[in-house]
Structures are given as C-alpha cells and as structure tokens.
Amino acid sequence: MAEPKKLKDGQYKLRLRFKHPFTGKWIERTTTQKSKKLCKEWEIKTLADNLVGMNPDKVKLIPFYRTWYETYKKPSVGIERQKKLEQAEKHLKKYFDENVYLNQIDRVTYQQFINHLGVECNLARSTVNEYHVIYKAVFMEAQESGYINRNPARNAKMVGRDTTGEKKRTLTIDEWEKLLQTMLASEDCSSKYAALTMLFLGVRFQEVSALTIGDIDLKKRIVSITKAFDYKRTKDFTKTKTAGSVREVDMPIPLFDILNGFIKSIKHTSKVVSIDQRNEKKQFLFPNEVGIPITNAAVNKYIKKCCRAAKIEEVTSHAFRHARTDMLVLAGADMIYTQKQLGHSDPATTLKYYSALNSDIKTKNRSIMDQFMKDIL
Fold first, then answer.
1. How many beta carbons lie within 10 A of that of residue 204, not counting itself?
2. CA-based nearest residue to 134, from 45, 242, 37
3. DSSP E strand boundaries for 152-259
4. Helix (H) or strand (E) holding 27
5. pTM of the predicted model, to two decimals?
6. How far apart are CA 202 and CA 205, in angstroms?
7. What is the pLDDT averaged over residues 230-241?
8. CA-based Rg of the chain, rounded to a whole angstrom?
9. DSSP 8-state class, residue 230
C-alpha cells in the first residue's frame, strides 16, 4: 500500500499505482486530501471500485483473493494476522490452478480442498477451521459483488488432525491456583511478571511484550492495550492483531498489587530500558538483558518450568487466554464484557474459547440448574 506524502500546504498527496487483478493492466490514480486517513479511505475505495462491473466469467479465484486481502484486510489488521491471511493464499495457490475462476468453485470442489488441508497437509482441525473462516469471508464478498450465486464454503465439514491429546488448552481453577503460587514464589525476572500479567488478564504475548510503564494506570486499575511488538521482523511496535484488540483491560486487585510493587522496584533499577529516556511511556515493562522485550520462547520456558514445579500438565502462555475466559464465565461476567476484555473482534471467537466446557464451569452451571429446579418445585 502506498504512503501519503505531506505537502507544504499541510494537505496529503497519494499516488496509487496498481495492476488490475483481472485485466492485468496497470492503473494509476492520484488524490489530494486533508489527512492521511482520508487518503487511505480513498485508496481502499478506489481499489474496491475496480471490482465493480466485472464479468463474473472473468473473475479468477487467486487474483480475487489478493484484491480482497489488499482492500479489506491488510490496511486494518496487524502483522501476525497478515501473515495468517498470506498463508491462506499460499494454500489456495498450491491446490488450485491460477486460471481457476470463482464460479468454478462449487461446494464439492471446496470440500475437497478442505479435505486436502486436513488430510494431505495434516493440519490440525482447528487450523483448518481458521483458514475456512477466511475463505468463507472471501466467497461471501464475491457473492455480494455478484460474481457467484452461492457461497461454496457454506456448511463445509471440517476435517483435520485431532490435537486433543497433544496440548492442554486451558487450566482448571485448582491448576491455576497452583501455578500462580509457584510463580509468585519463583525468582524475580521479566518472564515472571510477564507470565503473571498474562495469567491474570489473558492478553496475547505480542500485546504483553509491547507494554510500557505508560500503559499501566494504577489509579484506575487499567492496562491499555494499544499496540503489539514485532519481535520477529522489525523489533519495533506494530498494530494489534485486529482493530478490536485495542482495548482497556481491568486489573484484578491481586495483579494490581503485583504490578504496583514491580513498577516501583524497576523504577529504581537499570533494568528498564527506554527508547526515549525522556518519556516513560516508551519504557518497556518487561525487557530482557539487552533492553528489548523478552521473547515468547523465554516466557514459555519459564511457564513450563513453573508447571513442572507445580506438578501440573505443561501449558504455553496461550492457554492463559482460555483460562481467562473460563474465569470470567465462572465470575458471572456477560459475554460482551468477556469479548472486550479478551480483545475479540467477533463474539463467535469468544464463544469458541468458551465452547471447550471445563469441569469447573460444568459444575457451576449444574449447581445453578439444581438450585433453580429446587426453588420451583
């Protein structure tokens, strides 16, 4: 995507040059707007307008996917989500011929593709479903644009490797408490406090690694999630996974006590390294020895060590997001609050996390039902 150029009069000029996805011809457009935001909106609209009025028989699958991605997703999602969307495109390219048209994909063809991902590629069923959600959205856009009559991805059957026994996805209340006590008793380090933050809040690793002192509001007991940290590529701040991931997360009182003491201690040590020493909002909260945020591998190594010490099944930091969902449900939080706390753009994602009904939630709901029946009889 092109970057707007600021002019001397304060306005922004954007030159857009792109190859038409269906005709193969290069198109050039230029605009002058009052802000970068308006330039980006114009860019998205211009790209989208080039899909209008095309003959459905001339719209190919792979170019349409690329245009959909560039127009609707790339400008608004983070690096990690972009990576997932680009990987989804690679799977399409490996399976389908580049000359396959959208209207040639029927339900049988699409199901065969899904079977290919699950069986021949040996992907986990959950991974296949993640790609399916992407493809279904692409075909939905194609349907609304008039290029196909029906969405071939509708009611597709998911297949893939069963990972139930491969990795534990959440923690029971008993396991959560044991892990918490083990962490609290362990030696102080950045991995410890990053892991504790994820354990209580269920934030993503990319989000916790981007936290700075300025993101912690101890007066309001709020953690502001406004960015992520790209450790693999740029070693700098980047967008959150989705726009819905930008949020304010409420700190439980125990975490407030932990972070309050931690922040007071690091302000008096040399461990906090700042991109700009004059601005504490740019001081990483959980830096490693060289001053950049700790790695995911370091945190997961710490967590596994604590799991062994606590004598519970080993998990990774991602299990804390599922555990956080369980905790909010057990506490009686409604679905909207739970969705916002976890940073899910789609409530369906929150329901997917909740769908793995653990024994604690089952016991609570059974007790509620038993009490209800007792009261009415």
1. 24
2. 242
3. 216-217, 222-225, 228-230, 236-238, 247-250
4. strand 26-33
5. 0.61
6. 9
7. 84
8. 24
9. E
